[in-house]
Amino acid sequence: MKIGIIGYDIFGTGGTRRSNLNLINEFSMHGDEVIFFNLLPFGKKQVKNIQSELEKPKNVSFYLLQQFPDVAACSSYILTRESLFSFARYIKFRWPEALVVGEVHAPLDLIEPELDLGVDAVDVYRVATEKIKKRFIKRIKQDNVISFPISGRHIDF
Predict the structure, then answer these.
(1) Of 2, 5, 14, 20, which is most buried, counting CB atoms within 10 Å of its CB?
(2) 3-class SS at 76?
(3) Whole-prediction pTM value?
(4) Sign of the CA dihedral with 14 first, then 29, 64, and 146 last
């Protein structure tokens, strides 16, 4: 399977970066091809650095989001930032059969009420807990929300 992940800046720092790396590792370990589209510019050195954190770096490609129209279609796309959920409309326009997942990472109270969450184009939203799921369903007035915790494979006990 070919999976496109669309994020703000996997080369930066923070929890969403870690979540993106976990996603990439989970899919690539199952033999899937992963294409990561980064909103912010990046260089070859940054790619090389992040590849050292990947379990199967040969299964992963990195592109700027601006290059999105030039890259072959994926069967699924995961949007990993709420402000990118409206991009689901473009994905559905180009590839109507693709599955689009919106990953909610920000605390719900910090997501601006007027933010376009792409409810007409996102197939399913993923949140971390059942409590967040219930609150998010109320907000978007749809029930296409699943709770699935983020991978903890990176935690060393």
Answers:
(1) 20
(2) strand
(3) 0.92
(4) negative
